[in-house]
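Lecture notes, unit on protein representations.

Consider one protein chain, 267 amino acids long.
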Amino acid sequence: MNHFKGDTLSWQVTDGVVELALHRTPCNEIGSATIVELEKFVAALGAMEAEAHALIIYSELKPGFCAGADLRELYRRSKEMAQADALKGVRHHVERIHAVMNAIDASPLMTIAAVHGVTFGGGFELALTCDLIIADKMARFCFPELRLGLIPSFGGIPRLKRDLGNAVVRDLLLTGRSFNATKAQQIGLVSQVVGEDEALRAARATAAQLRKFDRTTAAAAKKFIKPIPYEELNREIDLFCELFTHPAVEAGLRKFVESTDALPYLP
C-alpha cells in the first residue's frame, strides 16, 4: 500500500520518496489512534522500500511537528482502571510505540525529519529515529517529561545518547528547557536550519540528492554508523513503568489535563 489517508496521518510515495504527513489536531499528540496508524505505516513500509530510497516525516499543522504523547488519554486511562491494570496497559502501549520507532530507525531508507515549531517529548523522539533532522528556524526541541514525574518513554534518551554527548542529554532531560534550531544545529542535533516553512522543501531537495547513490551501499553505511541501542531502549521501558506508579505522576498529569493554557505543553 503506497498511499494512505487516515485520521492522524497520511503517506504516499512520490519519485522514490515516501512522505509521511502528520495531521492530528491540535499538534499531532501521539495517542492510541496515532499508534494504530503508525503500525499500519510500518506494516506497509517494507513493500514501499522496494520502490523508494528515502522517507520524509513532516507535519501539516502550523503549531509544529509534534507536541508529544497524548497526556489527556494517558491520564484518563490511568483513572479508569486499577493501578495494576493501568500499569499493564501503559507497558503494552509503550512497547507498541517502541516497536514502531525501532522499525523506522532500522529502515534501510534514508530517513529525514522535516520539523518546525513544537518538537517536544514524543515528537522529539520520533524525529530522533530519523537519519537527518532538518529544522526551520522556528523549531524548538524539548523533553518536558520531568515536570510530570516521568522520563521520555518513546526511546528518546538512548537515541540522543547514541547521537550526541552526555552533557547535552543531561541538559535536555534534567532541566526540561527547550533548545531553538540554532542551538540544535550547534550541538549536532540538526543537520540543516532553513527559513520558516522551508523544512519540507529542503528535505525533498536532500532526498533528491540521496537518490544519486547506490541504495545497497547507502543502507550498509547507515547500518554501520547508526546502531540501535536495543538494551537501553528496553531499560527505558522498565524505568518508565516503574516511575509511572509514583504519586507525582498522577499529580503532574492532573495539572496538565486541568490546565486552561492554550498551549499547556510549552515549558
